[in-house]
Prior knowledge:
Blueprint: E1 5-8, H1 14-23, E2 25-28, H2 35-38, H3 41-44, E3 47-52, H4 60-65, E4 71-74, H5 84-89, E5 93-95, H6 102-117, H7 120-128, H8 131-135, E6 149-152, H9 156-166, E7 172-175, H10 181-186, E8 190-191, H11 194-200, E9 203-206, H12 220-225, E10 231-234, H13 243-251, E11 257-260, E12 280-282, H14 291-309, H15 321-324
Parallel strand pairs: 1-2, 1-3, 3-4, 4-5, 6-7, 6-9, 7-8, 9-10, 10-11, 11-12
Helix pairs in contact: 6-9
Bound molecules: 2-keto-D-gluconic acid (8YV).
Amino acid sequence: MSRPLVLITAPVPDNLRDQLDKHYATLDLPADACLATAVEPRQAKHVCGILCMATTPVNEQVLAHFPQLRVVSNFAVGFDNIDIDAATKRRILVCNTPGVLDAAVADLTIGLIISLSRDLVRGDAYVRDGSWEQAGPPPLTADIRGKTLGLLGMGRIGREVARLAQAFNMPVLYHNRSPDHEADASGLAQYCSRDTLFAQADFLSVHVPLTPQTRSSIGEHEFSLMKPSAYLVNTGRGAVINETALVTALRTGQIAGAGLDVMAQEPLPASHPFCKLPNVILQAHVGSATVETRHAMITLATHNLLDALGNNRPQAMVNPHLLDSDAPSAQSETP
Ligand code: 8YV
């Protein structure tokens, strides 16, 4: 009798792997594996759980390949790599890792804002290439204090960025699917229309999940509203932005610059236009990539999987209604 099998595409440390090994066989696969073809049918019938990266596609084809699959635990707060409706219809629980990465992503967001405003990346090159010696001090840059931060999306990470911005005396505006009355009442941030957000922000920071509604939803119209002195920052999902329109806006000076930790294509090819633009700061999707935060994430993701397989309620679920009712069409929850 084969042991129930867990597929793993995320980096699981030994202490957590030991917990998995007590109860399950495990099979490690690449982070971007096509699970439906990587696992032979004779093995597939034993797969009870998947512990995966945000880069592992878990679509209808994958879900159909594993008839005994009970839970998909994402090593990520985002879950656009998973067909939630298809999983829910098959009564497969989907778990994610909200809450443990908010500070790390928010810190990087503020870091990109400061780096853009104070031109830190070019300032480093200015010293290293001898410009300081040859040409004297670099051009003056700009304060962030008093500048308006516009948050598109006011979930956990957006709220953490708003809290950090208070330390820099930045007025915070936000647009969300629905107003956050606590944020409004506490003075943390002020709700406004989407167009007002893009028109008034000095720094427009994107904190919405990638959904069919948000895909490529920031484009020509939004950039036409923004100030020429304004910057775009994205630490969420690259595909939320129409990158062709962004390249044009950056090249023509429609906006002053961008700080991008995420792109539609990852890894970003060095030949991409973003890599040729002097007013763009690029990072390799490192928002949550600190030792402490990734440890907290993989711990939560592993415990979510173990809890679900052990018939215990996981800490974080995307389609929790599967546990609370027999309704097959439960809605997913945003990160
Ligand atoms: C992923 C992310 O966790 O959490 C998310 O949604 O985008 C990242 O922090 C990381 O890419 C590992 O899957």
